[in-house]
Amino acid sequence: MKHQKEFETLKEIFKKITDLRGIRRLLSWDQETYMPKTGQENRAAQVSLISSLIHELLTSEETGRLINAICEEVDIENSEDDLSVCIKHWKREYDRATKIPNTLVKELAYKSALAHETWIKAKKSKDFSIFLPDLSSLVKLSIEKAKCLGFEDHPYDALLDEFEPEVKTKEIEGLFKELVPETQQLIETLLTKQKANKATSLKGPFPIKKQKHLATIMANAIGYDLESGRIDTVVHPFSTKIGPGDCRITTRWNEKDFTEAIFSILHEAGHGIYSQNLPAEHYGTPLGESVSLGIHESQSRLWENFIGRSRAFWIYFLPIAKGFFPVELKKIALEEFLQAINKVTPSFIRVEADEVTYNLHIFLRFEIEKDLIAGNLLPQDIPDAWNSLFEKLFGLKVPDDSLGCLQDVHWSGASFGYFPTYTLGNIYAAMLFKSAQKEIIDLPILIELGLFKELFLWLKEKIYTQGKRYNSSRLIQKITGQEPQSKYLIDYLKEKYENLYY
Ligand code: ZN
After folding, report:
1. CA distance 253 to 238
2. Do 187 and 42 belong to one domain?
3. What digits encode the pLDDT tens for the residues 139-165?
4. Cβ–Cβ under 8 Å, residues 483 and 303
5. Distance of CA 294 from the midpoint of ligand 1 (Å)
């Protein structure tokens, strides 16, 4: 192969970068789980050191020269062979890293650190004005960042691209255009039906020790390998890949409601399974990495909602759960339980939202972010914009900003463009689930029997082993034969809830 030598050298450079990223993730994992509080300052310095080493390697003259040498002779845009895929992604990373001036990178990191503190304070005291100065700086810097990166149509495209490569603002708008009105209509119907069916609530307490045992059984059953993973306790659950053979998940526990930890574990295990099964032989190259945040989220939502909240899943697992909590769950029947875990309630907080209302929360944030980055909305006007759109979407008045525009951590880290990936995840999950149902014979029966291997192997073949070979739209199209669209999510929700309240 031509350019074999350059390719090998680049592989070595990016293997180092990948290792450093793994080390940085390990430091963050430790910070969230076991690090003593007093270690914070030193840890921040360590993380920043690793970040600057990564930046140095990524933007070095040698990296640029090698990438450009290969690019001159290979049509990376139109080929899908290993070399082209790797070079395409490395070039993307190199371009993104070199287009943004160092001063801007440093200012964003510095302001984000400050903003995180003021955001916590503002949220606690329900006072947006405390957060406003730092948020305004971050919006300004992010607009500048979008300009440096460049865009064709909308400045938000440049930011979105970091989280969901090659997906455009216009495409997201198209997805919501179909999804939002259908969701609102569905909520209206469901609220009436729920009124007629008094949903029972689960009555604990459910001892944490037993919850841990049950959750571990479930994570293991769906394919999360505990030999190469672990489950720890945190305030805000996440999953992380340190490297091949080490993909960890975390959760929090609630004694009053054991399902909270169960669904959080199923969600994080979905992420974990994807990470554990990325091809280890391609570690250090894009072919050993996940496609995007949206595709990652499709894996967590698939296991959490499409499988984890389904009738088939609980036909198998409710008797097992009753074995763990014989007194607490004695009186609850399967149908009652399903209605309880699938209850739809318009509410203020995104992370507590159910499967149906969730996407409205994302639409709200998408609309606001888009306007902010385009300069059509000023940061000081966020609370008003938020509250009025929230009322339009949910029919509820936001009582204060801690239940409104101050609830999420994302803006304090300048992560504009991140939110849409949650809804993309739901949309992709619905499309993948539909295809899996078509291709795997008797999937619901397998799940009723607690047999998840067929679905795991299907996902492994279609998604995990592909690494970054295709972007998200192309991957979805290859697997399902369709472009990303909201129809399948809407159909899935309608059908599911029809069967829940018949
Ligand atoms: Zn997730």
Report:
1. 14
2. no
3. 999 999 999 999 999 999 999 999 999
4. no
5. 9
Residues for the chain: how many in total?
502
Distance 248 CA to ligand 1 centre (A): 13
Asked whether residue 455 falls in the same domain as residue 318, the answer is yes
323-330 long-range Cβ contacts below 8 angstroms, 24+ apart: 324/210, 324/211, 324/213, 324/214, 325/206, 325/210, 325/258, 328/202, 328/203, 328/204, 328/205, 328/206, 329/202
Give the span between the Cα atoms of 359 and 348, in whole angstroms.
13
Q: Which residue has the tokens 């509250």?
A: 387
473 belongs to a structural domain: yes
pLDDT tens track for 368-398? 999 999 999 999 999 999 999 999 999 999 9
Say if residue 174 is in the same domain as residue 60: no
How close is the Cα of 478 to the center of ligand 1, in Å?
23
Catalytic residue among 164, 268, 289, 367: 268
Looking at the structure, do residues 17 and 130 belong to the same domain, yes or no? yes
How many structural domains is the chain composed of? Answer: 2
The range of the structural domain enclosing residue 26 comes to 4-158
Give the dihedral of Cα atoms 252, 258, 264, 266; nearest 10 deg: 130
Same domain, yes or no: 62 and 142: yes
Residue 33 lies in a domain: yes
335 is catalytic: no
Pairing label, strands 231-233, 246-251: parallel
Asked whether 241 and 194 are in contact (CB, 8 A), the reply is no
Question: How confident is the model over 167-185, as pLDDT tens digits?
Answer: 999 999 999 999 999 999 9
Secondary structure letter of residue 304 according to DSSP: I
Amino acid at 4: Q
